């Protein structure tokens, strides 16, 4: 029965947009559930310990914090009193039910590219949820960012209202992949660098960006920093399971895999892989690595051999489908080392999915290594075994360390 249900969802996801249907129809609700999963809506609209979709999650932005709204069908505090047009206007245009402008933490510039049928299918699914009374005031921003009228200017600069239409020169799979990536999955919300106004820098689309203290890596076909060396099969397996030989999903991406991509139809994952692999690669220039006898490289190599080689192996080859390969890793060689530093300091737990239920874990080393030692270790990883990336400074580690514990040298734990 599970295989039949999965096949049915896949068929729905690939079907041409249907004509308007009964909001309570099984097909529309199931389609909406699938699209809600594709958009990982539960991640932003569920607070820790709260009811699913009832809102209240703190979303940190460069301009201050926002709280996600309640999207259960509660009439007073959720979306139960919205008309279909009001719901579509909110999701696709960033206009609330009272005419107020919504902040682009709701990625309406992406959802604008979805067709109305799919948006209403999401509404039909949300209408089947248990209503939860949870009043949330999303706007927690300081002055002047709390003035919603400023979004008129933001939308003028950053909101492209051009409809997304199929490219007749591309395959149906490529067009389907583009619809998913640029629409409901809103991949660029994390993977595209932002301008000083917080909008997407589309000249660098999907080339990696820092978001909420993590670096979302380049997912263009860049040969060194992106997915140029990945096969379509590897991309599909990564999105389905969270773990392949060359990488494992951790941090926010692990949540995306667990909540969203692991539950999508294989045909849709294949379409995403075809689209991403078909993008124009950037012009990646290797950094000049430090010499092998550089003191920081030598110190980093010693730390790696003592604390990392047991899992990731001395030659950085890792253990397939358990501990990721560091040699040749695009994430390791990213322009921004934030995620790599953070994983050393915080530790990591890979995604645990139905296909691969064992999510391997890495311990935190914040208690053990000073900022300088972490910098040496990360510099070595980024430049060992033929890797090539910029060196990392102790001050960069200090900036990332933040709430991950004090420097053990300064705390008197290491002398």
Describe the secondary-structure layout.
Blueprint: H1 2-14, H2 26-38, H3 41-44, E1 58-61, E2 64-67, H4 84-93, H5 108-111, H6 116-126, H7 151-158, H8 172-182, H9 188-191, E3 209-211, E4 214-216, H10 232-241, E5 243-244, E6 247-248, H11 251-259, H12 266-277, H13 295-307, H14 309-312, H15 338-346, E7 348-349, E8 361-362, H16 371-383, H17 394-401
Antiparallel strand pairs: 1-2, 3-4, 5-6, 7-8
Helix pairs in contact: 2-6, 4-6, 8-12, 10-12, 13-16, 15-17, 16-17
**Helical coverage, percent range:** 25-40%
* SS strand fraction: 5-15%
- Tell me the number of strands: 8
- Biggest β-sheet description: 2 strands, antiparallel
Number of helices in the DSSP assignment:
17
| Unreliable stretches covering 5 or more consecutive residues | 1-23
Mean pLDDT across every amino acid position:
88
Number of domains: 3
Radius of gyration over C-alpha positions, nearest whole angstrom? 22 Å
Oligomerization category of the chains in this entry: single chain
Termini gap? 61 Å
Q: What structural class is derived from the secondary structure elements?
A: mainly alpha
Order of helix and strand elements from N to C terminus: HHHEEHHHHHHEEHEEHHHHHEEHH
Task: Going across the biggest sheet, name each strand in turn.
Answer: 1-2
Report the principal-axis shape: globular
């Amino acid at each position: 029965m599970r295989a039949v249900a999965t096949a049915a969802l896949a068929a729905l996801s690939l079907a041409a947009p249907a004509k308007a249907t009964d909001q309570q129809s099984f097909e529309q609700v199931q389609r909406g559930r699938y699209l809600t999963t594709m958009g990982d809506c539960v991640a932003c609209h569920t607070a820790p310990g709260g009811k699913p979709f009832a809102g209240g999650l703190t979303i940190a932005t460069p301009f201050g914090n926002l709280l996600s709204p309640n999207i259960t069908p509660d009439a007073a505090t959720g979306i139960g009193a919205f008309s279909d047009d009001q719901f579509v206007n909110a999701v696709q245009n960033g206009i609330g039910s009272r005419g107020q402008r919504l902040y682009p933490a709701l990625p309406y510039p992406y959802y604008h590219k979805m067709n109305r049928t799919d948006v209403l299918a999401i509404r039909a699914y949300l209408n089947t949820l248990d209503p939860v009374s949870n009043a949330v005031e999303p706007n927690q921003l300081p002055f002047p960012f709390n003035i919603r009228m400023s979004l008129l200017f933001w939308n003028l600069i950053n909101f492209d209202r051009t409809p997304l239409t199929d490219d007749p020169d591309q395959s149906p799979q490529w067009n389907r992949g583009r619809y998913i990536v640029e629409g409901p999955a809103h991949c660029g919300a994390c993977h595209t660098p932002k301008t000083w106004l917080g909008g997407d820098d589309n000249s660098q689309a999907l080339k990696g960006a820092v978001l909420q203290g993590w670096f979302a890596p380049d997912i263009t076909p860049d040969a060194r920093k992106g997915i140029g060396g990945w096969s379509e099969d590897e991309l599909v397996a990564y999105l389905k399971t969270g773990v392949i030989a060359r990488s494992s999903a951790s941090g926010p991406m692990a949540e995306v895999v667990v909540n969203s991509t692991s539950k999508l139809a294989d045909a849709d994952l294949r379409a995403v892989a075809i689209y991403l692999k078909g993008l124009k690669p950037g012009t990646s220039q290797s950094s000049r690595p430090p010499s092998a006898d550089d003191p920081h490289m030598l110190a980093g190599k010693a730390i790696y051999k003592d604390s990392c080689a047991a899992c990731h192996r001395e030659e950085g080859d890792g253990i397939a489908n358990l501990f990721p390969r560091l040699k040749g890793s695009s994430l390791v060689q990213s322009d921004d080392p934030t995620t790599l530093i953070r994983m050393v300091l915080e530790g990591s737990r890979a995604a645990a999915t139905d296909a691969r239920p064992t999510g391997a874990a890495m311990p935190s080393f914040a208690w053990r290594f000073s900022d300088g030692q972490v910098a040496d270790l990360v510099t070595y990883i980024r430049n060992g075994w033929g890797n090539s990336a910029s060196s990392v400074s102790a001050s960069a580690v200090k900036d990332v360390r933040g709430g991950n514990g004090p420097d053990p040298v300064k705390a008197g734990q290491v002398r």
